[in-house]
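On to our target:
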Amino acid sequence: MNISSIKRPLAAAVAGIFLLSACATNPDGSYKMDGKAAGALIGAAAGCAVGAAAKGAQGCAVGAAVGAAAGFLIGWYFESKKIADAKQVNDEYEQQSRAKGKGKAESVPKNEIVPAKFESKVTSAAPDQSGQREIQVTSNTDLVGYGDTVPELQQKYAIYDEKNTLVEEKTEKLAAVDGAGSYQTKSKFKLPADARGKKYTVKTTLVSNNKTYKENTYKVTVRDGQLLMLAAL
């Protein structure tokens, strides 16, 4: 066994210390990672990469320890909830269909439940004392139809820097999906203080039964204390 094979598990173990101390059990028995733990894991990976480039395997372990303490995208948080029931949403889409002169069946399926809308909004709060700014992505998804089988919904997030290099990506499963209706998700994370003035691309994607339904892409930047939307692509 070489030194590298020993040091790299050590780097993972450093992040593991943070993760084991910051996981909570949800009512359904699943686990939810505390935001600080997520930041530690991301930071450990980034620190390992930087340290390894400078000092090899030993640098990876040292870099991971520093990165785990600092984090990169800090304080990741995700929640999902149902905000409108099946009858309300199905009725709304049937009314829209009639208003457009289409048959009811074209808008609201009789034997299945499918996505009908996926929209996202990116906002920010004022920076904290350290200069880190919290970014919030709120997404709304409508499911319509009268089928018995509920699709499995996942929401994917990806953030790219000015060079279109992937900074971070996440995949979260929407909870409380019990049929047609309107669902809302909120995710929050913090960008480092040095993100000010830089441009980022934020992508949110809705996946239904392992198939991409829609992707929303936004160009944003932090300038003069405000998150500016440069373009929605």
User: Anything to note?
Assistant: The helical segments are 3-20, 35-70, 86-99, 104-107. The chain has two domains: 3-72, 76-232. The longest helix spans residues 35-70. The longest strand covers residues 133-145.
